[in-house]
């Protein structure tokens, strides 16, 4: 039985709101003070455990699980993690998988066992995976069997137990690697319920990695309370695009290793009893097949997907979109041209909404709403979700809180703000103020309705198809090339990617090196979206401040 929860933390408005501090137009909600994320999720999911309702189905293999099967399999795996592997509560596990039907089983099991989960980009190279495993202090790694031999040496070096998802009989697992399917199938019909006993709502449950405003990726500590809060905030009737309709179907192509896909698609979808159609990889053909075979009612996406729907000649309009009710786009603002084209082809019958957030706020801070005045505006991010405050600070004068339509850096405060960066107090202090305000590094403003717009970025991050790329990471790798003396990386506009990394390189004396050599060098070390699709330009020197900081604005003038 789930516990009853009566304790709440309230982020209530004061009777007098400070000047230029904005809050949500939606009433604050009561967020339980002592509920754990698995308890919150299972309380919702248990509504469908007496049915044969499909929870997840793979668009490629058609492998699927019903809600009862997910419930039983996750409990079986939780027992295995606790009793067979002897994992203690608060130990770390890592998931290196694409969007597969087994993903929610692994998540729920790990949460029930009281473990801390770090999600890893399934396209990461061996070096990138190893770095995150070390930083996250993982004891177990879940991965595809196809990567078993590649990962075996890492797991042996770090003394990590590898559990592989083996879906093909012709794949042989290495000695020491455990088959996931041996862990999720129990002969017992009545497994004892497992709930963490030493874990509190202030403990970290998810540890995704983000570059924050600058620098290399850092572990973002998100607590049970953070994630329960954001699930409840986005479930407010004014913002929720997913109902408990028995026919709700969602195309789940946003990666689960990214917090947007993890929270808004996977967890929120499961709490609503939706059918999630998982995409191990996104291709335009898979997307079109998903539209036609599964007739989705809602889905979450990024601007390139909206562009694809209205410009790809293989999408039959409006027939392929006839089942859609709403789409919610995030990661970057939608262009006016894409929004108008979408409205035209759907004859205004499909709501197209936008949102804004970041990993450090679990992840959503704002959502557009079709039921609130001024709730849908092209280029806008929407209104603050309940229990959240925002302010825009002058870049020229950090002590000045700006008013309507005045551009400044966005600061956020609310129950969804992260606990801090793992083992990095300096970065945490630079990001979260003493009174709980989180610096986003994004520049924008709010209008007379309280609608928030993001117009620019203070932070150095490059967003490639919605994925953040840290220049510092690429610069560190390029400096290892024997022909490179110095380097700086910036983001440049790219027709297909939105933005792409471009490197400015100072060559060592008396060496012969071509731009393609640098690009191929990077390709061997990082995932595809971090490749130098913006090109490589050789320069005599890198412009810097007296303290050595790269003047990226000066480099942009060279484009």
Automatic annotation (TrEMBL):
Output the InterPro entries linked to this UniProt entry.
Answer: AMP-bd_C (IPR025110), AMP-bd_C_sf (IPR045851), AMP-binding_CS (IPR020845), AMP-dep_synth/lig_dom (IPR000873), ANL_N_sf (IPR042099)
The protein's predominant localisation is other
**Among its keywords, does the record have Disulfide bond?**
no
Signal peptide bounds: none
Q: Name one GO biological process term.
A: fatty-acyl-CoA biosynthetic process
As for subcellular location, the record says: Peroxisome
The AMP-dependent synthetase/ligase domain, residue ranges? 51-422
Q: What are the AMP-binding enzyme C-terminal domain coordinates in residue numbering?
A: 473-549
The question of whether Nuclease is a record keyword is answered with no
Assigned keywords, A-Z: Peroxisome
Domain of life where this protein originates: Eukaryota
Q: Cite a GO CC annotation.
A: peroxisome
PANTHER family tied to this protein: BCDNA.GH02901, LONG-CHAIN-FATTY-ACID--COA LIGASE
> What's the protein name?
4-coumarate--CoA ligase
Question: Which family is this protein grouped under?
Answer: Belongs to the ATP-dependent AMP-binding enzyme family.
Output the Pfam families linked to this UniProt entry: AMP-binding (PF00501), AMP-binding_C (PF13193)
Ranges that cross the membrane: none
One Gene Ontology MF term: long-chain fatty acid-CoA ligase activity
């Amino acid at each position: 039985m789930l516990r009853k929860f009566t304790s709440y933390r309230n982020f209530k408005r004061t009777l007098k709101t400070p000047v230029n501090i904005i809050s949500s137009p939606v009433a604050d909600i009561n967020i339980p003070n002592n509920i754990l994320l698995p308890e919150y999720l299972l309380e919702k999911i248990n509504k469908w455990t007496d049915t044969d309702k499909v929870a997840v189905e793979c668009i490629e293999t058609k492998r699927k699980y019903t809600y009862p099967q997910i419930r039983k399999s996750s409990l079986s795996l939780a027992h295995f993690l606790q009793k067979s592997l002897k994992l203690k509560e608060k130990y770390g596990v890592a998931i290196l998988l694409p969007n597969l039907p087994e993903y929610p089983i692994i998540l729920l099991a790990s949460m029930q066992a009281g473990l801390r989960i770090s999600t890893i980009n399934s396209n990461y190279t061996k070096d990138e995976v190893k770095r995150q495993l070390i930083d996250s202090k993982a004891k177990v790694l879940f991965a595809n069997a196809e990567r078993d031999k590649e990962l075996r040496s890492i797991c042996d070096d770090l003394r990590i137990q590898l559990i592989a998802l083996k879906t093909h009989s012709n794949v042989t697992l290495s000695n020491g690697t455990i088959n996931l399917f041996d862990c999720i199938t129990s002969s017992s019909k009545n497994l004892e319920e497992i709930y963490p006993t030493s874990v509190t709502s202030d403990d970290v449950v998810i540890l995704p990695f983000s570059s924050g405003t600058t620098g290399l990726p850092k572990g973002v500590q998100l607590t049970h309370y953070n994630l329960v809060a954001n699930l409840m905030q986005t479930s407010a009737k004014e913002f929720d695009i997913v109902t408990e309709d028995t026919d709700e179907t969602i195309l789940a192509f946003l990666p689960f290793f990214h917090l947007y896909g993890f929270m808004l698609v996977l967890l929120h979808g499961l709490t609503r009893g939706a059918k999630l159609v998982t995409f191990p990889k996104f291709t335009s053909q898979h997307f079109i097949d998903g539209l036609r075979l599964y007739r989705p009612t809602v889905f979450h996406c990024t601007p390139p997907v909206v562009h694809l729907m209205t410009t790809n000649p293989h999408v039959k309009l409006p027939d392929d979109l006839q089942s859609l009710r709403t789409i919610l786009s995030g990661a970057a603002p939608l262009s006016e041209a894409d929004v108008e084209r979408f409205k035209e082809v759907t004859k205004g019958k499909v709501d197209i909404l936008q949102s804004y957030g970041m990993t450090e706020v679990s992840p959503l801070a704002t959502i557009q709403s079709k039921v609130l005045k001024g709730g849908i505006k092209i280029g806008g991010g929407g209104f603050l979700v309940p229990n959240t405050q925002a302010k825009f600070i002058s870049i020229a004068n950090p002590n000045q809180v700006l008013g309507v339509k005045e551009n400044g850096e966005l600061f956020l405060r609310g129950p969804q703000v992260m606990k801090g960066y793992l083992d990095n107090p300096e970065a945490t202090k630079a990001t979260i103020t003493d009174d709980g305000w989180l610096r986003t590094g994004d520049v924008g403003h709010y209008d007379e309705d309280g609608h928030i717009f993001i117009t620019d970025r203070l932070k150095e991050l490059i967003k490639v198809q919605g994925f953040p790329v840290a220049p510092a990471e690429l610069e560190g790798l390029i400096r290892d090339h024997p022909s490179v003396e110095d380097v700086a990386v910036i983001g440049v506009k790219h027709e297909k990617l939105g933005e792409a990394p471009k490197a400015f390189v100072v060559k060592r004396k008396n060496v012969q090196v071509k731009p393609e050599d640098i690009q191929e060098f990077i390709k061997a070390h990082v995932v595809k979206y971090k490749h130098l699709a913006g090109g490589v330009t050789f320069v005599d020197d890198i412009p810097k401040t007296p303290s050595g900081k790269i003047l990226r604005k000066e480099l942009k003038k060279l484009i």
